[in-house]
Amino acid sequence: VTDSKAINSCVIGWPISHSRSPLIHGFWLQKYGIDGTYTKRAVEPENLASFFSSMKEKGLSGCNVTIPHKEQAAKLITNLDDRARRIGSVNTVYLQDSALHATSTDGEGFCRNIETALPDWSFQGKSILMIGAGGSSRAIADELLRRGANRIALANRTIAKAEQLRLVFGKQIEPIGLAEIGNHLPHCDLLVNTTSAGLAGASDIPVDLSRLREDAVVTDIVYTPLKTQLITNAENRGLRIVTGLGMLLHQAVRGFELWFGVKPVVTEELYTLIARDIDPGYQP
Ligand SMILES: NC(=O)c1ccc[n+]([C@@H]2O[C@H](COP(=O)([O-])OP(=O)(O)OC[C@H]3O[C@@H](n4cnc5c(N)ncnc54)[C@H](OP(=O)(O)O)[C@@H]3O)[C@@H](O)[C@H]2O)c1
Fold first, then answer.
1. Which of 21, 41, 135, 264 would bridge 11 by S-S if both were Cys, CB 3.0 to 4.6 A apart?
2. From CA 169, how far away is CA 98, in angstroms rounded?
């Protein structure tokens, strides 16, 4: 039973137990003294449509949507903003005038993370080498081009998926196979991994970082472990690195603002809280 004054939101996924979103939003609810809740709910794919149609009855003002529902949710919700419509994926749902609306904040979260970590950085005119052409790659490519990136070499195991992104975003996207990564390294300003290949326990896609320019930046959107092998290798080579956890924090800002009415700030304190949940030995 929920308090009638409280504003309630949640994250839905299947499975959902791994989600750190309740920790992030819970931190902000407390920090800003807001009467609200943010929980996690396991929603099976076959129950996604009924979940959305009963959100108001459940007393929810909105929700975050994670794996595997991001694409299906974009099909079920009619009021998508331009960005969500372009990428066919949503991660943030909100009720407005009793109607469901949705957007995707992954691309913005990715870019804000880099801009916060590297205050002098601009995406304008940059050459990007991005590994992975899944759902998050699509959201990131959209935002990179919107922010003026010049070209994106897009490497994927299944090249047809990278070619699909070229059809959506145009000729600034160059689809390549994983074997061609090496040839593109010397020309790129920013190397991005968006594949799940570097997740805890799995091995990274091998990348010969010695071929990158000294001023290149390396980032990985995977944040378990906090430093993937790719990030550690880049750091050992003395390159500038940006870890993936910041993206998770920055993508959460817009949802919190939409549901709870306050634009929250991503702080070191929040980063440390979530980083310690992932790795209890984390030291800032
Ligand atoms: N930091 C954040 O806020 C944030 C946000 C979103 C996602 N993520 C993380 O990013 C990762 C990708 O998410 P997603 O939603 O984009 O997933 P997705 O749509 O399932 O895409 C997965 C991508 O990884 C590639 N891949 C998977 N295993 C591989 C392997 N063994 N070798 C080569 N390529 C492999 C896939 O290639 P194929 O197309 O060939 O299968 C595809 O490009 C996940 O680990 C997720 O947790 C982080």
1. 21
2. 33
Ligand 1: which residue has its CA nearest to atom 18? 134
Please state at what angle helix 245-260 crosses helix 268-278, rounded to 10 degrees.
Answer: 120
Show the tokens assigned to 208: 């010969």
Banded pLDDT at 200 (limits 50, 70, 90): low
Which ligand 1 atom sits nearest the alpha carbon of residue 202?
A: 31
Q: What are the angstrom distances between the C-alpha of 40 and each of 18, 19, 124, 251, 252?
A: 10, 8, 37, 17, 14
Question: 205: pLDDT confidence band, cut at 50, 70 and 90?
Answer: confident
Euclidean distance between CA atoms 58 and 1, whole angstroms: 10
Q: For residue 250, report the phi and psi dihedrals to the nearest 5 degrees.
A: -70, -30
- The whole-angstrom separation of Cα 234 and Cα 256 is 33
- Sheet containing 7-13: give its strands across: 36-42, 7-13, 60-65, 92-96, 99-103, 79-80
Q: How far is CA 186 from CA 10, 140, 278, in A?
A: 43, 22, 33
pLDDT one-digit tens code per residue, 112-169: 999 999 999 999 999 999 999 999 999 999 999 999 999 999 999 999 999 999 999 9
Q: From ligand 1's centre to the CA of 201, what distance in Å?
A: 15
Using CA atoms, how far apart are residues 197 and 155, in angstroms rounded to an integer? 13
Q: Which residue has the tokens 């950085």?
A: 121
Catalytic residue list contains 70: yes
Question: Cβ < 6 Å from ligand 1: which residues?
Answer: 67, 106, 109, 132-137, 156-158, 161, 194-197, 199, 205, 221-223, 244, 247-248, 251
Q: Are 150 and 173 in contact (CB under 8 A)?
A: no
How much is the pLDDT for 202? 61
- Spatial distance between the Cα atoms of 22 and 267, rounded to a whole number of angstroms: 16
SS3 label, residue 283: coil
